[in-house]
Structures are given as structure tokens and as C-alpha cells.
Amino acid sequence: GGIGLDTSKELLKRDLKNLVILDRIKNPAAIAELKALNPKVCVTFYPYDVTVPIAETTKLLKTIFGQLKTIDVLINGAGILDDHQIERTIAVNYTGLVNTTTAIMEFWDKRKCGPGGIICNIGSVTGFNAIYQVPVYSGTKAAVVNFTSSLAKLAPITGVTAYTVNPGITRTTLVQKFNSWLDVEPQVAKKLLAHPTQPPLACAENFVKAIELNQNGALWKLDLGTLEAIKWCKHWDSGI
């Protein structure tokens, strides 16, 4: 749903061979709609919860790779926004993303004779500057930015490149109503939506542009219908 569904529709306008969708919730109507958009593309669905152990993810990926042989791009897009659910927010938004990425390295890492691949992680503008009333959610998105930047720097070793797409406030069900941490601001959703936002389609169009640009280490901001590369300021370097 939301950005994910609209982005899938935009992808199907391109010359794809396969589109594999992994989601916790099965939506046959949406899958049928996607299949009808471009009959030349093989659209398949697998049930998947990103909070499962890495071993389960690896088992599912083994099945998918066994059928398709080659997968070029992994888009990690699962996310929730509810600072009452602290453990689950971290599990879905960050741990699940890390575990799914770790699992696919088994098939992509050039040190294991893999072909390499491309990781596209969905972050958020809150990964740059937090919505301070939802520090748990914002913290997970900052972690996604940092993790992905590390993946990009590891590309010469692994053969796997990575970048983030970071949407601004987009009019999806995710932001219509959500809980702030310790209820510090019960009206946070209402106040947030009083400011300019973007529709999911505008975000999806720029999302696919970022995929096509395919720049390792890029930090893309997708806000108010625009696509902008963010330059991250370095304040410290490990030196190694």
C-alpha cells in the first residue's frame, strides 16, 4: 500500500523481467492490478515478515533465487510509525532491514563468488532531522541512513552497492494518525499534516528516478514532489 504500491506501479512502466513482492499482508486485488498493468512482467508475491530470524529469511531467499536465478535490486521498504510500540518499531524499521540485507549477502557477496547487487533502503527525512515527538521512529530512520552509508563504503569488498531514498511527509495511512512517545504530543499527526505534504504518486515517481540513477552511497531526499541529493557533512572519521 501507499508509497510501495505506487512505486511498484511506476516500476512496471519500465522494462522489467520480474517484480517480486514480499509483504506480511496478502493483498490479491493489488497483485492482480499490478499484473494487469504490464503483462510482460512476471509479478509474484511471497508472504514475509521482516521480524523473522535471519535463517528464515535466508530460506525464503533461497527459494526465490532458485526460481529466478538472478535478482538485481533489493528494496527494503517495510516500516511502521507508532512510538507506543517501541520494540516493534525498532524490529520492523531497523532490525528487519539489517537482517534482510544480511541474508541476501549470502547470494550476492563477491567474496562468496556472488554477482553483487544493489540495495535500496527506504529511510525518511526524519533520519536527517527528527520529528522530536516520535524519537523512536526518527531514531530508526537515522540508523537506516548510517547503516546504508556503511554498506556503500563496503561495496569494493562485497560487490554490493547501496543508497537510501528518504521521503518527506507523504499522504499515506502511515501518517494519518500515530502515537507520540510517552504521549508528549497527542495531536502530532494533525499538526504535522497542517504543513505541506506530497501525494504517494509524486513520491513514487521520484523514487523510481532514484533507482534509475543508481548512485552508490546517495542520500536522496524525496520531498514535496522533488528529488534532491543530500550532501552529508563529515564531522568525524575513523581513519581506517
TrEMBL record:
SUPFAM superfamilies: NAD(P)-binding Rossmann-fold domains (SSF51735). Belongs to the short-chain dehydrogenases/reductases (SDR) family. GO terms for biological process: alcohol metabolic process. Its EC number is 1.1.1.1. It comes from Drosophila teissieri. GO terms for cellular component: cytosol. It holds the Pfam family adh_short. This is Alcohol dehydrogenase. Keywords: NAD, Oxidoreductase. It catalyses: a secondary alcohol + NAD(+) = a ketone + NADH + H(+); a primary alcohol + NAD(+) = an aldehyde + NADH + H(+). It is an enzyme of class 1 (oxidoreductase). The gene is jgw. The keyword NAD applies. The keyword NAD applies.
